[in-house]
Write a structure and sequence with these properties.
Low-confidence stretches: none
Order of helices and strands: EEEEEEEEEEEEEE
Shape: globular
Number of helices: 0
Helix content: under 10%
Strand content: over 45%
Number of strands: 14
Distance between the termini: 21 Å
């Protein structure tokens, strides 16, 4: 189970929040102690948050949002992979999902639907109805089609995020 722990820090008189991604593993009825993912996922002085994991052909793909350097601007969506069979958190170096997804604004709350190969995410860097809107894009990892705004009723004049399909 991947999750985020955030900590507010005072920086030059302003309050900022720094988030890091952790994992806990279940064995039987017990959970392991939370373990912070490697420093190349949780870089110093950077926020890494909103983890979403999919399994594909023996590979675990971790999508997440981060304001790390090398992005397009603000928070971007990144991914990192590891072999499912590995017990270690030995992910690959994070890769930016690219300019079809990421903008000069903030892209957050990734959710990947494996059945239809669609990434759902929120953005305030595209044309929006208001604030953060939910978008969808077909593809995988760093190869995406043009994102489509999901429109109403999914989006409103307020911030809209954390979209997940349920059956």
């Amino acid at each position: 189970f991947y999750f985020t722990i955030c900590k507010s820090e005072e920086s030059w008189g302003g309050l900022t929040t720094k988030c890091q991604i952790f994992v806990t593993k279940r064995s039987g009825k017990t959970w392991s102690a939370p373990e912070k993912l490697p420093d190349y996922i949780n870089e110093a002085n950077v926020t890494s948050t909103h983890p979403y994991v999919v399994h594909e052909n023996g590979t675990e793909i971790l999508y997440f949002s981060s304001n790390r350097s090398g992005g397009k601007g603000g928070m971007d969506i990144w991914y990192s992979t590891r072999e499912i069979r590995s017990n270690a958190n030995d992910f690959t170096l994070p890769v930016n999902t690219g300019s079809q997804i990421n903008t000069l604004g903030d892209e957050i709350t990734p959710y990947y639907d494996q059945l239809d190969g669609t990434l759902y995410f929120s953005s305030n860097g595209q044309i929006t109805i208001g604030g953060q809107d939910i978008y969808k894009s077909k593809g995988t990892r760093a190869n995406w089609g043009k994102p489509d705004n999901m429109g109403t009723p999914f989006n409103s004049p307020a911030d809209d995020f954390f979209f997940i399909k349920t059956t």
